[in-house]
Amino acid sequence: MIKPLLTRLAAGLALVGGLLLLGAIALSLTSMVGRRLWAAPITGDMELLQMTMAVAVACFLPLCEINDRHIRVDIVATVLPAGVNRALLVISHLMLACVSALLLWRTALMTQDSFLFNAQSVQLGLPEGAFQVAMLPGLTLMSVCALYQSVHHLIREDAPALIEEEGL
Amino acid sequence: MEGLTMGAVALGVMLLLLGCRLHVGVGMLLAGALCYLLVYGDVHALLYTLNNLVYARFSSYDLAVIPIFVLMGQFAIHGGLSATLFQASAKWIGHWRGGLAMSAAGACAGFGAICGSSLATATTMSQVALPELERHRYTKRLATGTIAAAGTLGILIPPSVPLIVYAVLTHTSIATLFMAAVLPGLVAVVGYFAVIRLMAVRSMTDVEASPRYSWAERLASLRDIAPVLVIFIVVIFGLYGGWANLTEAASLGAAACGVYALWRGMRWAGLYKSLVGTAEASAMIYLVVIGADLLNSGLALGQLPAALAEWVLGSGLAPLAVLLVILAIYLVLGCMMDSLSMILLTIPIFFPIIMQLDLFGLTGPEKAIWFGIVALMVVEIGLITPPMGMNLFIVQKYSHNTSLGTVSRGIVPFLGADMVRIAVVVFVPALSLVWLG
Amino acid sequence: VTTLRITHFLPAVASVQRQVLDPWCDELEARSGHEIRCQIYPSMQLGGIPSQLPDMVRNGVVDIAWTALGYSAGRFPRSEALELPFMLPAGGDEGSRIAWAFTQGPARKDFADYHVLAVHSDGGAVFHSRDTLIYDAADMAGLKLRAPTRMASRMIDALGASAVSMPPAQIADTLAKGVINGASAGWEVVPPTKLDEVTRYHTEPAAHQATPTVTVLAFLMNKQSYERLPDKARAALDALSGEGLSRRFGKAWDDAIVRVRAKVKNDPDQTVITLDDAAYNGMRDASRSVTEDWMASREGGVDRAALVRALEALVEQKEPALE
Ligand code: NA
Ligand code: NA
């Protein structure tokens, strides 16, 4: 019941990130065409792309975790008994939950600083803090998804021992 | 603590954590955090370094081409490009002995010119080519070995995610690296063709030839793959003809691939899958990138790369011997890790060493390009070395009732071809540098 | 022994490290009776991006950083006045004297969170062009020029060209492909970016003219790191920082400028153009709107008009010969 909800949230956020990615692509194409044909590049296209992509990538994070697609070294898993493997999975997802919570906290602090010190993009003078705030939901949801995965492996035995590689 | 000792401790802890099945990015990040704690003795510097970590990497202009290339590959997959490529090449060379396997390898090469990932190439080609190969009574060993090996063309032929990461780490031009990878990539295709031919002759009874097609049918098949050629040429010309930088060329390729996929019947469901697939693959890459970033700055904090380079220079080892040791380390690591993690982990350590060595009289910039291609080749082998070869897992999954053992035996001759090619690329630097002029 | 961790965004072989930071560190170590040891981390080795360097200093991730103020837009609003068009004299030494005095005086508030070791100028920008001889603003109409800072972009736009921003590493490649027609960049940028291989014409101000724009660089130290130092070490650091160090940076840039300029001038394929007074006045008047717009902004409660007046008075006092 929780998993479908998390998956939907994560997929929704990933979709938002995907649309931002499409936007970034459109932006760089517009800038390229403008520059070639009318000698009129979009001012600050690079910094706009950078800030947009930062938000997009943060939005991508939760889905990868809830679908358990992150890169892991599974060579040891092949020789360990199932119980140990389960314990390792509980720990590994818990560590990701902690690390992403830590990153969320620190990124939030940086965002606060950006507003406090009026950090701007170089060409357009856009507030960097506004884009950094938009990264926080992705980090939050990744932490929640990792916590879910950890608890899931703790209480359910049918969890797969090895990740499946597909859909790359 | 001295640089080398601290580096050894941090890398040891990291390998232990990775062995415990931690996410690779998390393991690297924790090992990097350990370096900060060892150097500073408190958490202050570490915490404030983390303030900047995520935004700094996520907003990197150079890395931004990765999701764009990933999306381009996704459009190619959901636009049915892999099947089109395979069918077209089968019409040209499918009737040769082993020709269908060669067609699969050729289609992988074509797909690799659009897609920057080996796993994506192996996945989509497994789905398209494995059933056909099995229908024509190719042995499972040859069929799975072919796809697993040729899947690595996804990163050998540009665009290539590991090369982008190498370029970012070493401040080398991505476009130049892509150009340098073209010829070695084609050599790889030739090598795989040779292996398939040899294997097909040996298993004479198993391999059934597919029908020979008329010239009219062959030429008609070109019409189907023409869009691929157009997309590739548009991207390459955009890049080298000077009207686009890499990000713009990638955007152009992704847009062209998207339009092609729509024309081939991709609808909302396909677009959704493409975006979601891009999200997952990109998130996977970026998590490792930020982990590696903290590890690398932690190691730099303890001066490990400099200390190691100094130690290697002082040891009096022949430059070539050092190079061979480094290559050997890659091959060992390749049995455990994936290509991207290997690049992110090793390049900051090995690159300063390589740049200090006198190898084949190459200049600094030449050496940076050449070593990038060599590193790409050796990490690519990691994808197909048992027991941990991602491509092996993928083809095994799509080949019914096939054991990992069968796939592993099937890959051995291709590994042989890879070794020969690596030797050629190492000892004939001109192969990677011919475009530099 | 206190270790001072110093970081910057250029490679270890760059002249800022070779010519200034390394020898400065050696002197500091000796003068402090070896109570201080420097550890330099080039190329952003400690992570982050150049715009985050001031934060890294403020938060104590490093003790000292060398950075361009313009990279961290919005953080040093008062010091931005130094980048205004045709404000400072050309030359590293002259510009650095003024930059130091201005950031110690009228713009002091920008640096409340830092112990400032030096603030210096890069000696000013030169217009490098591929195909067009730039004698005056009219020659710039329609050109696409790379700009190093936001202020430089506004100036280039005001002069009738269009500004494209990009990091130094991309300039030569983009120029060779004809994506841009030229670049506004200091002389010292020419050799590392191979700018002389893709441009032939170089337009610079005359000795008595102000430079089109400068890049302001600062050598910033964490306050606690400074206060923590033992007395003798702090005295050594004080003696080796301030206006003296700022001018030392400036002079190192001047050395590079003289060297590069001579090399370009002696190259028969290259042409160096010096602005005549009419062209100079035309450019200065055309870009006056940039300064006026800047003065009109009250963002962050900063009285920019007063800052410009103060800076102009300072320039008048230090460089009376400047037009
Ligand atoms: Na590729
Ligand atoms: Na492997």
Automatic annotation (TrEMBL), chain A:
Kindly give the InterPro entries that the UniProt entry links to this protein.
Answer: DctQ
**Which keywords does this chain's UniProt record carry?**
Cell inner membrane, Cell membrane, Membrane, Transmembrane, Transmembrane helix, Transport
Q: What positions does the domain Tripartite ATP-independent periplasmic transporters DctQ component occupy? A: 26-153
Note the topology in the membrane.
Multi-pass membrane protein
> Transport: is it a keyword of this entry?
yes
Q: Which Pfam families match?
A: DctQ
Enumerate the subcellular locations listed in this protein's record, separating them with semicolons.
Cell inner membrane; Cell membrane
Q: Which domain of life is it from?
A: Bacteria
Specify where it is mainly localized.
membrane
Quaternary structure, per UniProt, is: The complex comprises the extracytoplasmic solute receptor protein and the two transmembrane proteins.
Name of the protein? TRAP transporter small permease protein
Automatic annotation (TrEMBL), chain B:
Annotated compartments: Cell inner membrane
| Principal subcellular localization | membrane
- Superkingdom is Bacteria
Under InterPro entries, the record lists: DctM, TRAP_DctM
Q: Transmembrane residues, as ranges?
A: 29-51, 63-88, 100-121, 142-168, 174-200, 221-240, 246-263, 312-333, 340-362, 368-394, 415-436
Membrane topology classification: Multi-pass membrane protein
Per UniProt, which keywords does this protein have?
Answer: Cell inner membrane, Cell membrane, Membrane, Transmembrane, Transmembrane helix, Transport
Q: Which residues form the TRAP C4-dicarboxylate transport system permease DctM subunit domain?
A: 11-431
| Similarity section | Belongs to the TRAP transporter large permease family.
Role summary: Part of the tripartite ATP-independent periplasmic (TRAP) transport system.
Assembly information from the UniProt record: The complex comprises the extracytoplasmic solute receptor protein and the two transmembrane proteins.
Q: What's the name of the protein?
A: TRAP transporter large permease protein
From which source organism is this entry?
Answer: Larsenimonas suaedae
